[in-house]
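Collaboration report, partner site 2.

Our partner group contributed sequences for two proteins of shared interest, and the home lab folded both. The records are reproduced in the order in which they were received, starting with the first partner submission.
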Amino acid sequence: MHPWQLILPLGISFFVFQKISYLIDLRRGDGHIYGFLDFCMFVMFFPQLIAGPLVRHNEIIHQFGENPRRPEMWENLSRGFILFLIGVAKKVGLADTLAMVADPQFNAAAVAPLDAVHAWIGTAAYTLQIYFDFSGYSDMAIGLGLMFGLRLPLNFNAPYRAMSVRDFWRRWHITLSRFLRDYLYIPLGGNRGGAARQMVNVVVTMLLGGLWHGANWTFVAWGSLHGAGLAVNHLWQERGLRLPRPVAWLMTLLFVMAGWVLFRSPDFATAGGVMQSLAGLHGVGHITLDREYVAALIGGTAIALLGPTSQEAALQRLTPDLRLAIPAGAMLVYLLLLVGGRLPNVFIYFQF
């Protein structure tokens, strides 16, 4: 019996989630009824259609009636372009370069155990890759939207600086987190019904969030892991317990990295092998990396942990200036040439 060969459009899950949120809001008595053209524009607005952010109807449709040639048009164009350029740089300059480090390690781990150095380098590279890949797409979408005079919601806020698992999900894929909260967690009962019921609700919510990423048990395990982490986090905070900030940050980051091992691995055998390698059970080893890869790892780590967020840089810190036009244009040309000189590497979240 041969499996069915199904062809699905890119971004189908994001598309469906947006429409689900609208229908549920109507059922709850929201009362927002839109004209046909406005609703079609909401459905078909291309920058966020394929991989988010998950924009709600009441965040964008009311903006369609505003005059795009309003006084701030040129500022929106310049800031939107810079944010789009930052997104391209994240994807092409960092994520695609880091993929050349992470992919060989996880491919090798599927065949034979890695030593500790290869496992840590591969895991660190993928941790940075998925962040810059997905947040880069979000920056591009938000920047393009701003160039049309439309403000799309923030989707990332320096997630690897989080001090807890709960804090991480306030910063990572923010629009998905709030969708899961408003349309799954709260309808399941939320924090009503006692601590035990709350823990069940949060684990079920995250389990379904993991399943949304793909029909693979590793995604379900990834969602369940984060659900359990959130449940423990709730109990920890309710009891007034606190860790020193450096310890809290390090434990959160290591927890998230362990989750990315599950997320990236094709099966549990590979994930288990990488976890064992991270613990040093297959020897220490050593690795030699090209300068390009070392620069991407160091630079990516510094940007993720120390630098301003892309929205903060483009929308608050930078002031539109004609003198920035030439270097910004030259950077975009360089990045486009970089794309053409490499094998294509699609956005990770295109598969979801």
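Second partner submission, folded after the first:
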Amino acid sequence: MKKHGKKKKSSLRFLRYKNLTQELARYGYEFTPKKALVSYGIIVLLAAIFGLLYKLQLPYIAAIGIIGVVFSPLVLIQTMKGKYHTTMFSMVNNYMEQFLYSFKKNKTVLNALMETAIIFDEGEIHEILLKAMEHIQYATDSEDPEEEALAMIGEFFHCERVDAIHSFVIGAQRRGGDAGGSIALLSKNRAMWAERIINLQKEFQIVKRNIMIALVATLMICILPLYLLGGDLDISAIPLCQISAVVLIGICMLIYVKADKKLCRSWIEKETDSMGMDKKYLQVRDYDEAKEAKSSQKMAVIPAILFIGAFVYFQNIAILVVGIVVVLFFLNQHKVGHNLAMKKVSREIEKQFPNWLMEVALLLQTDNVQMAIRKSLDSAPDVLIHALNELIYDLEEDPNAIEPYHRFLKEYRNPDVQSAMKMLYALSSGNAGDVTKQVEELIDRNNTMMDKAEKLTQEDKIAGMKIYILLPSLLASFKLMVDMALLLVVFLQNLTFGM
């Protein structure tokens, strides 16, 4: 299977058979002309079935068929992509488990790769492992063949957890000694991550099932007005009824495609941080209540004048009450906005801090605390960038001071963050006793934090998908209102002619 690229493409280009086959080949699926004929034949059959159920005329049935043809390549691509991502997750999970076990036993990258290659004895991953081993054994112009070899594997998986494990084993091999404790904790972290992903996959399947049920229920309910009343009250032949049925079916297909796209995701690739979180952090950090209050007062002037004028003119107490509520909201909108931004940044920190801390913990295998924090800046999440820059600046001014560690994100009152920073200070000051043991304790504590943080992330993903369960009911309401209006018009017309 070929690694899927990140380049965004127009969905219409996949209507061409050549483009569709090339895209599906990325996920290891061969789309033959016979399979294409079957796929489009099913679409025509479904269009005919829905056309008969909704009593549609031939042009409207053809419209449904065209919409189905436009959407079908996306459905097919997303189905194959979903299978590909599931396979990659299973592969990367097995690779990390075996590689950590083999490194713990053999203590060298080469021997660990040799043993891992025996488990993955076929496919593209086997070829990558062989190439990596050959690079370690035969590269003559390389300063660090092990690191370059592991980078090849990391490029194949494109998974930050694999990169973190590779970074750890390189440091452990250079340092020597027994890294069994840290490896055991990394293995525990991997197991917790795999369990979370499996649970999330199950949750996504439940959401997808519920979306399908909602869509099918919508399509079935909207058929009822066409069959409950017949004879003179038959509205099925009215053009507006036919058009609204096509719109209904088309939007249902669109909802399914959009929901399927959201549910089809990589389980191993690093996701980008929420857009603009660095700016949101600065907005909270630089908040000036007095200045924002003046802006709110200026914004409240116009609504106040409008409502006062309306009250004087209409002499209605309801206008006065509504006006007071609206003006009070404008006067306090800066506080509401600040509180919402504060909560959003706080939640993002809670999700992203454990990832950063794991990076620092792994860097501590070879660097001191200050250097580890400085190096972690390159891959730090956006929401932590500004706070880390302040921390690094303060530590350069006074490397032995405890205050920079205490001030780090203090305003967010996160006990996990404060506890971790105290441990980092203890490590930096040399008061932590056995450094290896303390680093292992830091990784162990971080495992718990990461589990909590990633569960929050999963809750956000699932909550965002529930809108697709509600949309079909809104769509059904629209269609039923159109049909009820048409029934009323037909009924009144029959009543008029009858008289």
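Feedback sent to the partner group on the second submission included the following. Confidence is low (pLDDT under 50) at residues 1-7. Residues 136 and 145 are 5 Å apart (CA to CA).
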